């Protein structure tokens, strides 16, 4: 496998040429068959053969390394081939890189309690030891792709919220949150805090990309921040997001999530007076201030703070 990978990468930046298309599937099948046999030896014959000291722990390390290696190879191949088939400098290759990790994290989270091999003996090796690094890498990818990519979907037209980049970002957010609520050692407040921060970053990305594609604003931070209509749109979108978050929190008695929405609302008010009031004029200022005022009234009516006497909702109440 190592020799074929080096030769393939040297020649074509892929592991699927020079017989790699044959060697790697056979090698991975053989690898998992050997792991299955080794697990059976340690399980069914434990009363008569205990194996060398540390053999069970070593097998768990191999299980973990196997998942990480296979996911990394699949991610590399997906990005390489999708990059060849789609126009350069589009979001397709970046999205393809994340898809294998998304699928892997979903499976290890969903099947952790499964009675099927290999989760019967080594469930934590998959769900925690391998799932943890994959979740971290997906989180890094989420923030990097959201901030750096303009979301060009050529040859398809750009459509906000249903373009490849934003759909992939939504999938990443869901699978990482599902994994974190089960296996991450985070308090409920910290979990909702990170979830709120991710939503905030994703929302800003949606608005910035829409302004870039439909407002002919150059994809540079200085150009984007200097756009007055974009500043008004950001203020309104932040307020709408705070309204949605606080409405969900009120209905499900999720007090920590309500506090996340209240924090975002405080940021909106600060932006109104520190940024929008000096910078905006005319119609953008009127739209920003009137829009925020109306939304604040809706928040006060629809989303009061959940009573402290109510049982605080769990993180699992948010995503099924």
Domain module count: 2
Number of helices: 11
Summarize model confidence as the mean pLDDT: 83
**Rg (C-alpha, Å):** 24 Å
Helix content: over 70%
Find the count of extended strands (DSSP E, 2+ residues): 0
Q: Given the helix and strand composition, which structural class is it?
A: mainly alpha
Task: Return residue spans where pLDDT drops below 50 for at least 5 consecutive residues.
Answer: 309-316
**Assembly status:** single chain
- Through-space gap between termini: 40 Å
User: Beta-sheet strand percentage?
Assistant: under 5%
Morphology: flat
The major β-sheet equals: none
Return the string of H and E elements.
HHHHHHHHHHH
Map the helices and strands.
Blueprint: H1 2-12, H2 20-44, H3 55-85, H4 92-110, H5 119-148, H6 164-183, H7 188-214, H8 221-225, H9 228-252, H10 255-279, H11 283-302
Helix pairs in contact: 2-3, 3-4, 3-5, 4-5, 4-6, 5-6, 5-7, 6-7, 7-9, 7-10, 9-10, 9-11, 10-11
Structure described in brief:
The protein has 11 helices and no strands. It is an all-alpha fold and 320 residues long.
Describe the structure.
The chain has two domains: 101 residues; 131 residues, no CATH class. The longest helix has 31 residues. With 320 residues, the protein is mostly helical. The chain contains eleven helices and no strands. 74% of the residues lie in helices and 0% in strands. The two termini are 40 Å apart.
